[in-house]
Structures are given as C-alpha cells and as structure tokens.
Specification:
Chain A: Belongs to the bacterial solute-binding protein ModA family. Chain A: Keywords: Metal-binding, Signal. The complex is a heterodimer of chains A (176) and B (244). With 176 residues, chain A is α/β, with parallel strands linked by helices. Chain A folds into two domains: 50 residues, no CATH class; 111 residues, D-Maltodextrin-Binding Protein, domain 2 (3-Layer(aba) Sandwich), CATH 3.40.190. Chain A has seven helices and eight strands, in the order αβββααβαβαββααβ. Chain A starts with a helix and ends with a strand. Chain B starts with a helix and ends with a helix. Chain B is built from 13 helices and no strands. In chain B, 78% of the residues lie in helices and 0% in strands. Classes of the chains: A alpha/beta (176), B mainly alpha (244). Chains A and B meet through strand 4 and helix 4 of A and helix 6, helix 11 and helix 12 of B.
C-alpha cells in the first residue's frame, strides 16, 4: 500500500483506477482437486500462491484472512490453507504454470492471469466477492513527464470505452 | 579483464557489507536459505561425483558406437536456458510428467521437495564436472594403467591408486565448477521445485524474493553468498595445491 501511495504521489492529471482485478482459484482440468473453497484446507493438497510482495500474493493472504474471519469454513481456515502452501512464487505467471503442468493441485491467481491459453488446461473455482475485494490498478501521468500531453492521451484512452473493452477482453474488471 | 570480472563483485560487496550485515545474517529467512543451499548443493555434488565419474571415464577410455553423439548430448544442459531446463524437468519428473507419474505411484513424490532442488542442480551442473573429468582421464597415457595391471593390480586398485590420483586436479576443478554452478542455480530450481522458505528456497531464490520488496536485504544476502562462495573456492584451491 505504501508503494501505491508513493506511486500516486508521482502522478498528476487524469490519475485514477484504470481497472480492477479479482482473485480466483485454479486447479488442473485433467485432475481437478478443488471443487469448493473448503477443499483448499484438505490435508496434503499442494497449493501454490504468489509471494507476499506480489499483488496477487498479498491479495491471496487478505482473502484467506477474510474467509477465516467469516467463520464459514472454521476458525483456523487461513492457517490450514497456508499450511498447504508448497511454494511462494515471485511471479504470478509461474504460479499459473505450476497448475497448468499439473505439478500443483491448486493456485490462487488474479482473474486476468487466466489467459485464453491457460483456460484450456485449468478449471477455475470462483471466490465469492465478499472474500474477494477488488484490487485496483492506478493509472496516471508522471508529474515530471516530458511528454505530458501524449501520456494524458494514453491515460484517457485506457479509461475510455475502447480501452476498457480491451482490458475486459483480458480479464480485468471495469473501474467505471 | 580481471577488473571487468571483479569490479561488479566488489561494488556488490561494498553495498552489501553494511552495518545491517550481521543482523540480516542471523535472520531466520537468511539462515534457512543458507541451510537449504548448503544441503542441496552438497547432495547435488555427491550425486554428480558418484554418477558423473563413471560416465566421464567411459567417454574417455571406451570406443563405442554413438560415443561422439553421447558426448555432445551430455553438454546440452549447459546451453539450455535454465528456465527451459526447468520446464524440461517438469515435463519429465513433474507429477503429470513422463517419469513423475510412475514415481508418484511408487510413493516417490518429488514435487516441491528439496530433492527436486537437488535434481535441478545436478541437471544444470553435472555437465561441467563430466567435461573436466573426461579431460582429466585423457590427460595422461593410459599405458600407465596397463602397467599397473601387468604388475598385478586389480581393476579397482588400478582405478583408485593410479587413475584417480593422476586425474585428481581435473576432477577437483570440475567439482568446483559444478558446485559453483549449482550454488548459483536459479531458473531451473524456481520452475521445477518452487520456492518455499526452509524447504526449497535457496540463497539465489531468497535474493530474488527479497529484491521484490526491498533491495537492501537482497544486497546483504548477495554479499553473504559471494563471501561464502569465495571461502569455499579458495579452500578447494589451497587443498588442491598441497600435494605438489
């Protein structure tokens, strides 16, 4: 969060959320190991998540805390799920690859990470939105930008209907 | 050339050897990474020596069909980008891979274990040893071995008393190269074994992981790795020089 604030301080005109993203659970299509969220805590399940420093990894931990706090799946849900984590990857693409190649039983990734190519080899299990607060991606113009006008044009394009259509195609939620 | 090779390392050391050095060294994340690295690279070296020496000896002494092709094929892991090596290992020894599935049925689960780290390290580093060891076995006249046999030495005694001592400098050089390569191994390990503190997160993976949030601990960890590697490399050089 501190990093996002530092980033926003660098931005001036036209700043705002470009798009939103949510988390989803993926599991190998050939050998699905997760049908419901409760399966994430099943002993022996090999779960891969992103590193804490990666946005999807931070979001995954937050989602687990929310599920645990709700009590729906038992008090210790977050702890049991984190006990199943066999790898904390520095790159979300590699988190997805582990499931794509059947090495891991499940992973928590952003919806936008489930690309059309990946969709063929994995099955997704949706996370209810109350456990899954959207992650915002800010966009803006650098205050010190030497090409402020071109940058502003780009920001406006990203936030326009055309720009949002492209982002939507790649799995992002509209910020508007 | 020496300046080009040394300057970046020295700059890294200067940046890493700060007041935080000792505190960072004692943090659990660093100690875990060092433990995982020492254990896995040690095991990888043992496997490389045990399986690589016979292969190198056969390549150096025996003529058999396809020897040149096999010789060239064994160098392939050196030219593969580590990430490609990792994918190849996943497709072969992964849980859904060619050999991984039968292994899993037999109760041998490699996925996300330190054993997978060792496998990735052996795959990427063993060719360096085999190459050097082969050169070592070719560096002296095989008639010396024949003479030992004529004098009544058994094949095993010939190998341990004549062949190994004569090839030893090359074998040590190869072992050092292979160990250094596996200590720095990153791409294949991350892809094939993953990254979890205390299990599979070696020093290079811990450095990368730390660099995601803050450069300072990553630099300290890099300095630790440089110091550790230098100590081992220097010790091996001194040991190798003693007999002569």
């Amino acid at each position: 969060m501190r990093r996002v604030l530092a980033l926003l301080a660098l931005l001036s005109g036209g700043a705002g959320a470009a798009n939103l993203n949510r988390l989803t659970v993926i599991t190998p299509a050939a050998r699905p190991q997760v049908q419901t969220l409760a399966d994430l805590a099943r002993p022996g399940l090999k779960l891969v998540i992103a590193d804490r420093a990666v946005p999807a990894g931070e979001a995954a931990r937050r989602a687990l805390d929310l599920i645990g706090a709700s009590g729906t799946y038992g008090q210790d849900f977050a702890g049991r799920v984190l006990g199943n984590v066999v790898s904390e990857e520095p790159n979300v693409r590699q988190v997805a690859l582990k499931v794509q190649l059947g090495q891991a039983d499940a992973a928590l990734v952003s919806v936008s990470d489930v690309t059309p190519a990946l969709r063929r080899s994995v099955r997704t299990v949706a996370l209810p939105t109350r456990f899954n607060p959207p992650v915002a991606y800010p966009v803006g113009v650098l205050r010190a930008s030497p090409n402020a006008q071109a940058a502003l044009d780009f920001v406006q394009f990203v936030r326009s209907a055309d720009g949002q259509r492209i982002l939507h195609k790649w799995g992002f939620l509209s910020a508007r | 050339m020496a300046a080009f090779l040394l300057l970046p390392v020295l700059v890294l050391l200067a940046q890493g050897l700060t007041a935080d050095f000792l505190t960072t060294l004692r943090s659990p994340a660093v100690l875990d990474a060092l433990r995982v690295s020492v254990l896995t690279t040690g095991a990888a070296l043992a496997v490389t020596l045990g399986l690589g020496t016979p292969v190198a000896y056969l390549l150096a002494r025996r003529r058999f069909p396809g020897r040149t092709v096999l010789d060239a094929l064994l160098d392939l892991p050196m030219v593969l980008p580590p990430v490609v090596a990792g994918v190849a290992l996943l497709l072969t020894f992964g849980r859904a891979g060619l050999l991984g599935r039968p292994l899993e049925i037999a109760g041998i689960g490699l996925a996300f274990t330190p054993a997978a780290v060792v496998l990735a390290q052996v795959f990427t580093s063993a060719p360096f040893y085999v190459r050097a060891a082969k050169a070592g076995f070719l560096a002296f006249d095989p008639d010396v071995e024949a003479a030992a046999r004529v004098d009544g030495a058994s094949p095993w005694a010939t190998f341990t008393r004549v062949t190994l001592p004569l090839a030893l400098p090359f074998l040590l050089e190869g072992a050092v190269l292979a160990w250094a390569r596996s200590l720095g191994e990153f791409g294949a390990t991350l892809l094939f074994a993953g990254s979890l503190q205390g299990q599979t997160r070696t020093v290079p993976l811990a450095i990368y992981s730390a660099a995601e949030s803050d450069l300072a601990p990553a630099l300290v960890l890099s300095a630790i790795m440089v110091v550790l590697a230098f100590a081992v490399l220097l010790t091996l050089r001194l040991v190798a020089r003693k007999p002569t």
